[in-house]
């Protein structure tokens, strides 16, 4: 079976990219740009393979994907080690091993779901049946923060519904992505899943290609808008998840001790490098001190370092671009008089480490609040009334997720109903599930993933209407 590898690609040395271990800054290897000519050939192969794949019985496709899940499980230790080496998240805690188990689960669930034809109307004169057909070739643009898990979100539902996939992993996490694709392709028929590598220009050419029928993208708002522009060339259907600046509201009187672990990991999962992390925390002024004290106390006991160390559960920022952005936001907060309520211990390593940092005396209008930090820095904002907290939480261009924290379920439900986000969690944050649709509002993107709705998103509806 043909394998795509970095060694087989031609490249322009002026645009090659070095992949680094973010904990040690050691060079893992050179990431080369797939040429336009190579992309054309890859897409042509995918088109032909897709016809053969879609013609297989549905039950056969499901069985093959369940075999993919088994292969991912078998190789999960190897792939988790690659994630830690290249992405940086620790093996343990909610880290690389956790990501691999998510890859297995998010493969098993789409393989188990059915999307049969539906009689949408019938009377004595006619019968109308809605079918869900594959779109064709799907272009998947995967990010660097959860490089394998999010790639699975894009690959598996697309394959499940009879499409072929051409995926471009982030240039920051190419090697671990290629390792996973090798595992998947040890099970799949030839050419159904293919990979291109390189920087943004490669993704731009891929997404604008006339033979692409669907684009699945996870990344920044700015790049998402470029994907939208690229799709004008081919009218490709879009699923865009463009990040978030998720707000959490702690309602007055919360018994903080029983929620502190969930609040911490809601904010600092993957060092805060998660689109649906808690990135702005609104706390009633009467509860402010106890919330800060509880968060600082919990944070002080969480070990940070090289994720290959089994005792570590917090790792580095994945890349220098993101590291510099977070440092810039910290400097801006310092210059505008913010209070640094807690700052963890930075490990004595060369990597891109930023300790967990809690920031106070800030409000909407400050950059540290208005801009998605995508790192381990949490602004904590006081409010006087719940209405004020709701208004400030909604005052954002983002609308991916939000959360409400309360010991009173009815009050939490009332607040959740008023928050402008694709998902609002109560007493949890970022708790996604493979059966539950997930997508954003506002500039966090459009379209949904997961569950039956996610399968529908990688199909085209077709009605056959018969006169009786």
Automatic annotation (TrEMBL):
Q: Which residues form the Aldehyde dehydrogenase domain?
A: 12-463
Q: Does the keyword Cell inner membrane apply?
A: no
Q: What keywords does the record list, in alphabetical order?
A: Oxidoreductase
Looking up InterPro entries in the UniProt record yields: Ald_DH/histidinol_DH, Ald_DH_C, Ald_DH_CS_CYS, Ald_DH_CS_GLU, Ald_DH_N, Aldehyde_DH_dom, LUC3-like
Establish whether keyword Repeat is in the entry.
no
The catalytic site is made up of 241
* Protein family (similarity comment): Belongs to the aldehyde dehydrogenase family.
Q: What is this protein called?
A: Aldehyde dehydrogenase
